[in-house]
Amino acid sequence: MFASISFRSVCVAVALAGVSLFGAIGARAQSTEIQISYKDKAFTPAEVSIPANTAVTFKVKNLSDKAMEFESKPLKIEKVIAAKSEAIINVRPQKAGQYKFVDEFNEDVAIGKVIVK
Amino acid sequence: MIAALIIVFREVFEAGLIIGIVLAVTRSVPNRNRWIGGGLVAGIAAACVVAIFAGGLSHLFAGMGQEVFNATILSIAVVMLTWHNVWMARHGRELAGDMRAIGQAVAEGSKSLLALAVVVAVAVLREGSEVVLFLYGVLASGDDTTVGVALGGFGGMLLGAATCALTYFGLLRIPMRALFGTTTVLIALLAAGMAAQAVAFLMQANWLTALDTVAWDSGWLLSDSSIIGRALHTLIGYTDQPTVMQLAVYLAVLLATFVLMRMFSTPAKMSRTAQA
Q1: Please, which of A41, A102, B170, B264 could form a disulfide with A107 given CB 3.0 to 4.6 Å?
Q2: To the nearest 10°, the Cα dihedral for B242, A37, A43, A41?
Q3: Is B140 on the interface with A (CB under 8 A)?
Q4: B3 close contact with A: CB closer than 8 A
């Protein structure tokens, strides 16, 4: 009996914590959109320049017939993009610098770079 | 072949660690293999389904379906892990000691096993769908390299299984009495780490933008893409650039676990109620 109460309490506690923390949902700012396409294990463009401290959106088109995973450790992005499809990736405001991104499934050849300045 | 081995191993490594811990936690619980095995199979099946519908999933929630999905399953795992800890705080003593209570504890125990089976399924599902997509992509291409890559992928999975075995047998070396305390802490940290990961996904989706400043950057000390960094990422939620929100949620889960365990493990109060 106590076990079932505790299960419910845990759920409620977690839900409450969630609700109180999620006060800031929906503050989705409009941001610059940058198109990147991916084919034959290469990004086009392989170098993307964006302004510092500004949120941007990448629209990544996977033109190949295999799924890929767009990954950037320094930008904290990992997203699977199915074959012949497009994904939207939010890039949070970044400090000036260079940030690498890869197709994780072909990370030794499929490499690109974001230049923030 | 080596590239495939590394990619697959990296994906199954986390699941291997988690399953190893879950097996050690449930070492004395009857029927645990059936439950954990069930979680594993369910996770693999779900990974295949997610891989097949990866495109569709992405398009949900204005293109943020994947992030929301990941955050959701991670949150489910957090609830299950926390509930397990609270349950153990209440019944762990019965399982370890009083044999008369064990009949009831076993009946109750299946609930806890269900929670942990869900955790296993989530762990396998999360990284598994990427393995499925990767291997499918390679196999579908039909290059000369296909056999090598398949072998590499298989090797990666074997290494993942080895990680699981090492974790399990490593934990078994801990004496039974200390094991309970150790696994409680391990599971609490695991849950807190998963909650912080869920936050990262919600931030990636722009669903959560509050407190998004980076608290510190310890990448110079230990990168979270190194093998030790990855292990710590899974085990305690280590990340080299946590945001303030991730830290807050991490600490909140630890605190919630602590408070709930205290609330529900009240043997003195319990025996009084029983006498009354």
Answers
A1: A102
A2: 110
A3: yes
A4: yes
The tens digit of pLDDT for each residue in B162-200 reads 999 999 999 999 887 788 888 899 999 999 999 999 999
Distance, in Å, from the CA atom of B90 to the CA atom of B76, rounded to the nearest integer, reads: 21
CB B118 within 8 A of CB B234: no
| Both structure tokens of B170 | 């490593």
B54/A24: higher pLDDT:
B54
Residues in chain A: 117
Among candidates A24, A66, A76 on the partner chain, residue whose Cβ is nearest the Cβ of B137: A66
Q: Is B143 exposed, middle or buried (0-12, 13-18, 19+ CB in 10 A)?
A: exposed
Judge if pTM exceeds 0.80: yes
Other Cβ atoms closer than 10 A to B217 = 10
CA–CA–CA angle A59, B198, A112 (5° rounding): 35
What distance in Å separates the CA atoms of residue A36 and residue B40, rounded to the nearest whole number? 37
| CA separation for the pair B163, B161 (Å, rounded) | 5
Q: Tally Cβ neighbours within 10 Å of residue B69.
A: 20
Query: What residues in A contact B108, CB-CB < 8 Å?
Result: 3
User: How many angstroms away from the CA of A89 is the closest CA of chain B?
Assistant: 8
Separation CA A64–CA A86 (nearest Å): 11
B170: closest CA of chain A, how far (Å) = 30
